[in-house]
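[SOLVED] Predicted holo structure with coenzyme A

Edit: marking solved, answer below. Original request kept for reference. I posted the sequence and ligand SMILES and asked for the 3D complex as structure tokens.
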Amino acid sequence: MGPTRLIATAPGVQAPNGPHVAGADLTSEPGGDPGDGVEHLAGPVGGGGLRVTSRPIGGSWCGTHRAILVRPAQGCPRIDTVVGMQIRAARASEQSAIETVVATAFGEEPDGRVVQMIRALNQTRATRISLIADDDGIVGHVQLSKAWIDARKRLVTALMLTPLAVAPERHRQGIGTRLVEEALKAADQMGVTAVFLEGDPNYYSRHGFVSGASLEFLRPSLRIPGPGFQVSTLSRHEPWMTGHVIYPDAMWETDTVGLRDPQLASIENALNS
Ligand SMILES: CC(C)(COP(=O)(O)OP(=O)(O)OC[C@H]1O[C@@H](n2cnc3c(N)ncnc32)[C@H](O)[C@@H]1OP(=O)(O)O)[C@@H](O)C(=O)NCCC(=O)NCCS
């Protein structure tokens, strides 16, 4: 499998550095829904990338786990500013560094489940947007892959956001927030109607996500705890675009949809208590 072309959107932006994502030629999609708008994305996104001021973070990190509804430890200092950080499209040559950040953020082995999921999404050309936070090295990553809404009128192209990862030593500096913001902008420019995810509503509600059920979307699996199934509708969304959300094969092949027992039972018990 050779490195191929990039991901996402931002019409009119040139690709001087040829950003890539491994195994996923996503610059065109013959026969696709006109709304999929798979276009080119290059270089910094969001008006030239992020450039703010900062101070270093010290001490131990405040970790989170992928478990839905688990808040990080309290009492860690929040650092809002980062020097010279840029949010931009990932390149194929950066895939290994991305995997390192992701595995570390999720507390997994280098070849852990989330990394396997990323590889499967890339290899099956499901990846549509892959952005990194670059601060003299990769400190965060977000990926959006194809999904569908099985609406009554027709199948509607959407995206699913997973994973979102920030290097543990760089948590609480706003990097996750910037990655989500830029990913949503890129998705909107791409012309898709909605971005779905499984995650903590306490975190994602800050970024415009709401309960999928509240907008009459049906989750792809009953093993996704209700509050964790969230959506951000984009500018092209219309009220009739509701129904079951369909994930790409790679999510099922890697068994990364929802939760399984005993974690699922424990989250459900927490929600019911
Ligand atoms: C979740 C994650 C991406 C957030 O990245 P980040 O750069 O630290 O996020 P930001 O700096 O933008 O926001 C930090 C804020 O979100 C809060 N937060 C982080 N994870 C949270 C969670 N699971 N639930 C609620 N709040 C959470 C932090 O407490 C902090 O709150 P504060 O603003 O009151 O200080 C990062 O913690 C991470 O990589 N975690 C491991 C992987 C993961 O769980 N990914 C999400 C899968 S659904």
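OP edit: Confidence is low (pLDDT under 50) at residues 1-80. Thanks to everyone who chimed in.
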